[in-house]
Write a structure and sequence with these properties.
The complex is a heterodimer of chains A (301) and B (325). By secondary structure, chain A is mostly helical. Helices cover 69% and strands 0% of the residues of chain A. In chain A, helix 9 packs antiparallel against helix 12. Classes of the chains: A mainly alpha (301), B mainly alpha (325).
């Protein structure tokens, strides 16, 4: 709030106009039309996916022999059936559950590790900082997909391994972000004041420093989820991720490795591909809007 | 400059050693060992059931009973002499495989990177100059699409439209089988995969080029150039372009690991006989020698790209002088 109070009569007006950080962020976010639209699409997708068992007309594993295999879309099977006569639409929304859950869980792990390492490096500085940051640099320069492929190949493909591997590889840029912010924040007067009144390190980190990072971390986590969903899709497509019969958007595309399916049965592979695309696109655009909205330096107009 | 490059090379040596240690430990941590994997994959017919005793002797013969550090040194020594081990399924030396595959990947990546840089930078600049117009919005959405849609899905759509329905390009491979190799035929196969790859890389470059250009046209010297009467292409090419381009050099080099990842999936979809598809095959088959060797190759490639980017930056930006002190 930069406007100055010119006279005492205006004090009342002034009070009314005061908005919290959150309200200002929401105000800025609303102006990014595309981001609002993306958030809406994501909300719809989440509802669809959370209530999948209710929305889906069939169980995702159910083999509908009487319907036949590779049936094109019909009233009974909205998106047709797959190679073992399972309903593609039901598998699609159940697959979304798996894909989104893998992305969100993996990012939670990355967020935890990244914040921890970033806090330690940024708060204590010195040799600890430089050695932790060299370590982080190595992780940042790794070809993620290549390392994930190698890890899955060694540990064996499963949902748990996939989450752990993606989670343990994605923390580096979060650590960088936290550390950078800590380095500048720890020199601020209010931190010195906290030190003076005898606040302990953990209190300063948790109560005085970390709350400043909620915005940037939200943005980083948003983009991270998008990246994790893409990784899951790639791995499952290659057959090294989520294993059938559990559906995921990635492994539903696996069938399209056969040219015959690719050519004449698009209902098998277009819907999951489209779902990944629309989800990741929405997350990325929403993340872009969030970044602008949550930037404390952004001026309100 | 020479001294700088020399120093950078020296600094790279411990990093390369670190990469080899990581690759080695990686495989060490794997459940089961290479001998069992080898036996399982190379003896499907006659040697089906092998006794524990024989397995132990095989392990001895391959030196797997030595302590880890000795095996690591042996592995390094072998690599130094060009012996990277062999592929389990057909005993083809990994060095031969690598020398066949590396040129194919370099070709695909070079073509798509060149196309991507040219189109991406041009579109990024257009987008920045026409900020907040329809063109800008459309280009921004395209750029977001390119980095959000999985590369294998884009590849599938491309094959579906251009190969299966329009029949303009072959669906896979790098040449028509059972026909003498011709360069035209090869380029015909190269076109579609490099187009998809270029589209994805271009989307990324476009976003950075736009941001970088927006940053530069706010600078005082651009205002000065405008005040002096310059406009249009002259202003952009003569004053803004070079400075906007500088950060892109580093960004593209830093994107290389990501491009390697994308290329491995793309090569698998198009069955392009490059490094990426070899790696995916090896990962699926748990072919340890190939995985180990390729981790080292990728690590060294990423390092080399970083070094090249720094040198290119120094050449492009006369303000940067690397002093020897």
């Amino acid at each position: 709030m930069s406007e100055s109070i010119s006279s005492t009569e205006n004090i009342e007006d002034y009070h009314i106009k005061v908005k919290t950080q959150g309200q200002r962020a929401w105000y800025r976010f609303k102006k990014h039309k595309l981001a609002v639209l993306s958030a809406g699409i994501l909300g719809l997708l989440l509802i669809l996916v959370i209530f999948a068992p209710i929305v889906a007309p069939f169980h995702p594993y159910e083999i509908n022999i009487e319907s036949g295999i590779y049936r094109p879309p019909s009233l009974n099977h909205w998106l047709g059936t797959d190679s073992v006569a399972r309903d593609v639409w039901s598998r699609l929304i159940h697959g979304g559950r798996v894909s989104i859950a893998v992305g969100v869980t993996a990012i939670t792990i990355s967020l935890f590790i990244g914040t921890l390492i970033g806090c330690i490096a940024g708060y204590y500085g010195g040799l600890l900082d430089s050695s932790l940051m060299r370590f982080t640099d190595v992780f940042l320069s790794l070809p993620t997909l290549i390392i994930v492929l190698a890890s899955v190949s060694l540990l064996g493909p499963s949902i748990r391994n996939l989450i752990l591997i993606i989670g343990f590889l994605g923390w580096a840029h979060i650590a960088r972000l936290v550390r950078g912010q800590f380095l500048s924040l720890r020199e601020k007067e209010y931190i010195m004041a906290a030190h003076c009144i005898g606040a302990q390190d953990h209190r300063i980190i948790l109560h005085h420093l970390l709350p400043n990072l909620v915005g940037p971390l939200t943005v980083a986590a948003t983009f991270g989820v998008a990246e994790a969903i893409l990784l899951e899709a790639a791995l499952s497509y290659l057959g090294l991720g989520v294993q059938v019969p559990t559906p995921s958007w990635g492994n539903m595309l696996e069938g399209a490795k056969q040219v015959s399916i690719l050519k004449s049965r698009p209902w098998i592979w277009v819907p999951p591909g489209f779902m990944i695309a629309i989800t990741v696109l929405s997350i990325n655009i929403m993340g872009d809007g969030l970044r602008d909205a949550l930037d404390p330096r952004a001026t309100e107009d | 400059m020479k001294r700088y490059i020399f120093r950078r090379l020296l600094v790279s040596i411990p990093v390369v050693i670190l990469i080899t240690i990581i690759s080695f430990t990686f495989i060490e941590l794997a459940p089961g060992d290479a001998v069992s994997a080898m036996v399982m994959q190379s003896s499907s017919s006659s040697l089906g059931n092998i006794s524990k005793d024989q397995l132990e002797r095989l392990r001895e013969m391959h030196g797997f009973n030595n302590p880890a550090y000795i095996r690591y040194i042996l592995w390094l020594k072998n690599m130094a002499t060009g012996n990277f081990g062999y592929r389990f399924k057909d005993r083809k030396p990994v060095s031969t495989l690598l020398s066949e595959r590396i040129p194919m990947t370099l070709e695909l990546m070079a073509v798509s990177l060149l196309v991507a840089c040219f189109i991406g930078i041009s579109l990024g600049i257009i987008s920045a100059l026409k900020q907040n117009t329809l063109i800008d919005y459309v280009l921004t959405v395209i750029a977001f699409g390119g980095v959000s849609v999985p590369i294998f899905f884009i590849a599938m759509l491309a094959i579906f439209v251009f190969s299966l329905n329009l029949d303009w390009f072959p669906t896979s491979g790098a040449r028509t089988p059972a026909v003498p190799f011709t360069i035209i035929d090869h380029l015909h196969h190269l076109f579609l995969p490099s187009l998809v790859m270029a589209f994805v890389i271009m989307s990324d470059i476009m976003r950075y080029a736009r941001a970088s250009m927006l940053e530069v046209i706010k600078e005082d010297y651009i205002t000065t150039a405008r005040a002096k009467g310059l406009s249009g292409l002259q202003l952009i090419m003569g004053h803004a372009f070079r400075n906007a381009l500088l950060p892109l050099i580093t960004i593209i080099a830093l994107k290389l690991p990501w491009i390697f990842g994308g290329a491995s999936i793309l090569e698998t979809v198009f069955q392009w006989p490059g490094l990426g598809s070899l790696f995916v095959e090896a990962a699926i088959a748990r072919d340890y020698y190939i995985i180990m060797a390729q981790l080292v190759v990728y690590g060294v490639a990423v390092l080399a790209a970083g070094l090249l980017a720094d040198i290119a930056y120094a050449v492009a930006d006369p303000r940067i002088r690397y002093h020897s002190n």
